[in-house]
Amino acid sequence: MKRRVVVTGMGAITPIGIGVEAFWEGILQERVGFAPISKFDAKAYKCSLAAEVKDFAPERYMDKKAARRMELFCQYAVAAAGEALADAALDMEKEDAYRVGCFVGSGVGSLQAMERECGRLSEKGPSRVGPLFVPLMISNMAAGNVSIAYGLKGKSLNVATACATGTNSIGEAFRSIQYGETDVCVAGGAEAAVSPIGIAGFAALTALSDSTDPHRCSIPFDKDRSGFVMGEGSGIVVLEELEHARARGAHIYAEVLGYGCTSDAYHITSPAEDGAGAAAAMLNALKDGGVEPEALSYINAHGTATHHNDLFETRAVKLAFGDHAKEIRINSTKSMIGHLLGAAGAVEFIDCVKEIQEGFIHRTVGLQETEGEMDLDYCKESHREEVPYALSNSLGFGGHNASILLGRTEY
Predict the structure, then answer these.
(1) Where are the alpha helices (DSSP H) in 138-208?
(2) Domains defined along the chain, listed by start
(3) Span 232-251, mean pLDDT?
(4) Which of 339, 352, 362, 379 is catalytic?
C-alpha cells in the first residue's frame, strides 16, 4: 500500500517577495515583479524586462564563505530550503539523516559561471579558468548545496526537465516517500538565468515578450500575448510521510495526492498541438490520486503567455475534461512572477497550497481579452471559494509534461 504524503514546510524566494508570506501577500495584492533588467546592460537586447528577485542578501541565509562557493541559483535554493525546514520545525538531530531526501532541481544551472569562465578562456587562455568552474556551474549543485547545508543524507536527485523541473522534483520526492525510500524530502527547484546569454538565447527563440510595459508583458491567455518574461528564484517544500508528520506533531498544510508525467515525443520546443501529452499527464495525476475528473474545479496552468503554450494547454484541458473543462477555474501565477524556468513549478506548487488553505484563487493579472479556441475560465477576476483540489501543470522544452495534484488533508 502506498504511503500518504503531506506538506509540512514551505520556503520561497520570488520576484514579488522573499519568504512565503511576502510572496503570498504579493499574490493577494496582485503585485507584478516585472521591471527593466538591472543585472546587465540590456539596451541592445530584444527583451528589456525581467522578473528579478529584489533585495536578496545571501549572508542573511548562510555564511559568507559558503555563499562565495555558490552561484546565485544555489544561494536561492539554500535560502528557500532553510525557510522550509524552519517552517516544518524539522529537527535533524532527531531524524535519521539517511531517511531525509533532497530533490532540488535546476533547469540550466549557472549561465553566469559559463559566461564568466568562457570569457576568461577566450581572453586569457585555459590556465585562467577557475578551479571551481565546474562545481559552480552544474545544475545538480542546488541539491548538493542544500543537502550539505542541512545535513540531508537520504536519496538526493537533481531533476532537469527544463520548465517542468520544479514539478518533477516534487513529484519524484512524493514517489520516494510513497514507496518507502525516504520519510521526509526537501524538494523543489531553483533558477537564476537572467543573464546576457539566457536572455539572448530565449529571445532568439522568439519565446520572450518584447513588451516594455510591466503591466502588459506577461499576459497568459490574452490575445495580445507575445511571450514569457524571464523570472528567477526558488521554491522549496518539505514533504513528509503522514504518520511521521503526525508522530512529531508537525503542522500539515495539504496532502499530495497524485502525480502524472508524459512525453509529447513531438518537438524540442513546442508542446504537441493537440494537447494529448499534457492531457494524459493531468488524467494520470488524477487517477493516481483517486480523484474523478469531474471533482476538479481548479488548475494552476503552466500558462507562459507564449502563443503555442497557451493555445495547446487549453486544448489539453478540453481533451482531458471534455464538457467539464468550462467548469474549471484556470489561472497562471506567471502573470505576476514571470517564468522561473526550473523553479516555476515549485513556486506554483506553493501558490496552490496557499490557495487551498485560504480558499482563494488569484486572478490571471493583466488578462483582458482571449481569442478563438481559448474560451475557458482563465480567472479574469479572483475568487473566494473552497478549493478542495488543485492541479498544477508544468510543460518543458523537449516535450516533458508533469502534473501534480494537491488536496486538503483529511485523516
Answers:
(1) 141-150, 165-178, 196-204
(2) 5-247 (3.40.47.10), 258-407 (3.40.47.10)
(3) 98
(4) 339
